[in-house]
Predict the 3D structure of the following.
Amino acid sequence: MSKILSVLLILIFSGHGYVERFSYKEKRQLDWSDFRGKPDKTSKFDASVNTGITYQWSISKDLGMIELKYEVDSFCYPALSWVKKGQTSNYLLAHEQIHFDISELHARIMRKKLQEYEPGSNVRKDLNQLYKRVERMRVNMQELYDIETAHSNNKSNQEIWAKKIKKLMWYYKDYAQ
């Protein structure tokens, strides 16, 4: 099993499967130069930012105590993010920024849940379920955001969401990196 995993990691990171990314910690504010992907001309939308969260963990036992170490990051993938020519308004960029903020919000939620987690008998299963729950919440929030703002076309709802995410980011500020 570990040989298969090693081969997969080599293939992914050998340049054939690696996708450039930057973390929220490295760069919080998006700008249009971060949208390097080829625009989807068939899309009815003017831009799309591709973001996500990842986590890794390890566990150690010392003097009968179990210690969980973890790292959670939110990322933007420039080569998978795009904007159509002539559509680079500050307003649209602000809409896309909130998508990135939503991913960071869920990275913070994941960090909080991991901090509160008490390792049991099946840590791997527990953490995978925890991640799947947070990821489902993130995807659902991303979709709801686009539905309620009509992909940025509903300006009053866009403002409501901007305030909501700012408030939630503040609430989870202790879980920022």
Q: What stands out?
A: The mean pLDDT is 90. The first strand starts at residue 22 and ends at 23.
